[in-house]
């Protein structure tokens, strides 16, 4: 199956319109729902502590992602440093909270994408991109002009501004949000963010509107669509049942759904007694049964 990435259909005028709008946004930054309104072009930083240029930790063919992304040659994964969330159980806290990483030029990020393509990766997987959309889009623009042909995966935490997502329309082929919480209060407690559930619902509906139902090629590789991850937490703290009911009723049961069972206490979890253990088989299986009962067709 030959399916060109969305960005291959963008003309120069379309690219410049998106880049100009993003430059305007980060001059009083509202890329994410934090709406810090700092001028990142003038070296001001907000909640994410990040300037305008790409700030990355690592990049490599990743074989630990969903099989629909990995295939035989891996997902071309780029880990972006810092984050617009502060999850107390973050398993990549050295990158997201401690700021492990380095600033690079837009051209360097483009070259990294092209190198991952040369290695045979099936996609470009942008991990924690929300607060770095400006630099990422500039790099994709450059890489496209140099021959990038891989679908782009937007691998995010679900805490997204609708305006930013609309700018990404026509660039992102696969949206892969974590849907962390099925209520707003839990997001405040464990990720220091207000209205998480309310905001994530709007964002994920917009993601699905842009990419539509799944397109998977003859080799089982995802080319386009929405892949939602839900990390099952102890004591149903993520309120996974609310998440699944929302997705089934207001998005689609034909998305790719990954119900993740790999939670373990990390980072600041030790300060929260309810998070100081792994989940049980019973807790996990209850969530899976709900997903099956609601009619989800593709559960990773």
* Helix and strand sequence: HEHEHEHEHEHEHHEEHEHE
Q: How far apart, in Å, are the first and last alpha carbons? A: 22 Å
Mean pLDDT comes to 97
In which range does the helix fraction lie? 25-40%
Q: Regions with pLDDT < 50 over 5+ consecutive residues?
A: none
Using only C-alpha atoms, the radius of gyration works out to 18 Å
Continuous helix count: 10
Strand content: 15-25%
Q: Say how many strands there are.
A: 10
Describe what this molecule looks like in 3D.
The chain has 300 residues and is an alpha/beta fold. The protein has ten helices and ten strands. Strands 1, 2, 3, 4, 5, 6, 7, 8, 9 and 10 form a ten-stranded mixed beta sheet that branches. Helix 6 links the parallel strand 5 and strand 6. Helix 1 (12-26) runs antiparallel to helix 5.
Relevant terms:
300 residues, 35% helix
Topology:
Layout lengths: L11 H15 L28 E8 L4 H4 L4 E6 L12 H4 L5 E2 L2 H13 L5 E4 L5 H13 L6 E5 L5 H7 L5 E4 L6 H8 L4 H16 L3 E2 L5 E10 L8 H12 L4 E5 L20 H14 L3 E2 L1
Parallel strand pairs: 2-4, 4-5, 5-6, 6-8, 8-9, 9-10
Antiparallel strand pairs: 1-2, 1-3, 7-8
């Amino acid at each position: 199956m030959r399916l060109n990435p969305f960005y291959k259909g963008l003309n120069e005028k379309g690219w410049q319109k998106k880049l100009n709008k993003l430059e305007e946004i980060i001059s009083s930054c509202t890329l994410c729902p934090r709406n810090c309104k700092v001028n990142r072009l003038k070296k001001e930083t907000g909640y994410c502590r990040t300037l305008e240029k790409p700030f990355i930790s690592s990049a490599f063919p990743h074989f630990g992602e969903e099989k629909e992304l990995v295939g035989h040659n891996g997902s071309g994964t780029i880990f972006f440093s810092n984050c617009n969330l502060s999850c107390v159980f973050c398993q990549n806290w050295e990158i997201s909270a401690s700021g492990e990483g380095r600033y690079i030029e837009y051209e360097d990020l483009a070259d990294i994408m092209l190198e991952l393509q040369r290695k045979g990766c099936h996609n470009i997987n942008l991990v924690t991109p929300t607060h770095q959309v400006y630099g990422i889009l500039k790099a994709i623009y450059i890489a496209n002009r140099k021959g990038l042909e891989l679908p782009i995966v937007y691998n995010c935490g679900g805490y997204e501004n609708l305006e930013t997502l609309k700018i990404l329309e026509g660039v992102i082929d696969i949206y892969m949000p974590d849907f962390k919480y099925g209520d707003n209060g839990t997001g405040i407690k464990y990720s220091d963010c207000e209205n998480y559930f309310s905001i994530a619902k709007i964002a994920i509906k917009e993601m699905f509107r842009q990419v539509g139902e799944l397109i998977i090629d003859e080799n089982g590789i995802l080319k386009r669509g929405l892949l939602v991850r839900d990390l099952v937490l102890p004591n149903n703290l993520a309120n996974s049942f609310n998440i699944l009911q929302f997705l089934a009723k207001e998005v689609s049961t034909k998305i790719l759904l990954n119900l993740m069972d790999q939670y373990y206490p990390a980072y600041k979890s030790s300060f929260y007694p309810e998070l100081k253990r792994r989940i049980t088989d019973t807790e996990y299986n209850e969530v899976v049964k709900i997903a099956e009962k609601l009619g989800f067709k593709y559960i990773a």
